[in-house]
Design goal:
By secondary structure, the chain is an alpha/beta fold. The protein has helices at 19-31, 50-60, 88-92, 118-140, 144-167, and strands spanning 7-13, 35-41, 82-85, 102-105. The chain has 5 helices and 4 strands, in the order E-H-E-H-E-H-E-H-H. Strand 1, helix 1 and strand 2 form a beta-alpha-beta unit.
């Protein structure tokens, strides 16, 4: 993507402790300055899962020790170009964001909810991180023309929904 200024992205989840943290830091690293990336939760846990930080460091060479779990309310009024939900709950409760950002859903299982041995939990985090990393790679490879097309389609869908809402009254 060749944009004059970094596009703002919010990666949204329920707890903002695992998947959205993985998405935020992978997008920052793989986007190489193309994006200004944040993450948040609809009901943040208040702490980042240590396995998310460990997997980012061990498998991707990313230092996420400064990551923190925060509420989406912290970003009210911020104009994002993209809002990416990474869990079904966040998708269902995704608020309307100012500026009509492109909204995408990259659902992944919650590795923080996985029940098993410490090794099995770590492996679950590795698998979810790999899934998110593949999506990030594809996203980063999108040409600018495709992004513009997505933006126009998003606005068209928004107008269609607004028209349907007004005609059904």
């Amino acid at each position: 993507m060749n944009s004059k200024s970094p596009r703002k992205i919010l990666v949204l989840c329920t707890g903002n402790s695992a998947r959205s943290i993985l998405g935020e830091y992978l997008l920052r690293a793989k986007g190489r300055g193309q994006f200004e990336v944040y993450s948040a939760g609809s009901h943040p846990t208040g702490k980042v899962n240590p396995l998310a930080i460990a997997v980012l460091k061990e498998h991707y060479g990313i230092d996420a020790t400064d990551a923190r779990s925060k509420s989406r309310d912290e970003f009210k009024g911020v104009h994002f170009d993209f809002v990416i939900t990474v869990c079904d709950n966040a998708r269902e409760s995704c608020p309307i964001w100012p500026g009509q950002p492109i909204v995408a859903h990259w659902g992944s299982p919650d590795p923080a909810a996985f029940d098993g041995t410490e090794g099995e939990k770590r492996q679950c985090f590795v698998q979810v991180a790999a899934q998110i990393a593949r999506r990030v790679d594809l996203f980063c490879a999108l040409p600018e023309a495709k992004i513009q097309t997505l933006a126009v389609q998003q606005i068209g869908e928004q107008f269609k929904m607004e028209d349907e809402a007004t005609t059904s009254r």
